[in-house]
Amino acid sequence: MTTTLPDADFHRKKASCYVPSLEEMSAMQKRFAEEYLIDLSPKQAAIRAGYPPEKAAYAAAQVMKHPPVRDYIAKLMAQRSKRVGMTADRVLDRLGAIVFGDARKLFTETGGLRSPTELTQDDVLLIAGVKTRRIVALNEEGKMQPEEITEIKTVDNLAAISLAMKHLGMLNEKLDVNVVHTLADRLNAAHKRVADRHGGARGPIIDGEFVEDVAKSLADLESETYALQRQIAHEAQPAPMLTWDDVL
Q1: Domains of the chain, each with CATH number or no CATH
Q2: C-beta of residue 226 within 8 angstroms of C-beta of residue 242
């Protein structure tokens, strides 16, 4: 029996996706973690770290499963956040400035856009973009002259409110249908209420026996049963969406 050993090229290709033990991290994996912070693209980070481009996606997926690599990436991100002052409190403070910001502060009394020196830091957060267009219009003398129109686009306030509401737990996307009493319990209660309205403990149908006015009793029971079915169907509907009055 002849045994064929893998060639050197096989070992080289396999080593390019080699994942060390749980306690160690190779130099290439460390480089991958550092490159990952640039654009948060696993495939591109693998290519820049030296993995073969044709195997970069697979190599990145394997390396990202390695616990020391994930821990090292988390450590690098925490260090970077500390350096730039990127904290949760600061992010929420900026989000709050957008949610409660007043876009009217961006304009002068005549409707023009205020100069950058007149805007506060919170005011600037409300601006998504500024565009200037040049047009030709008639002046007071009836002559054509060039004019500039400045257009401003504000940030999506509804999106900011939605993010804030999610952070506060105000958006419950789960449908909770919690029926305490079964349909049988409610129907039995309906029988009792109909019987009580007819002035006796005997219900319209009790142990197979009917009251004297069967037609009227059955009509009352059918009406109340229909009302109960509508009530159960209504309780199973999703909660209504919040309105501006609920938010503000």
Answers
A1: 8-84 (1.10.10.1400), 97-159 (no CATH), 183-247 (no CATH)
A2: no
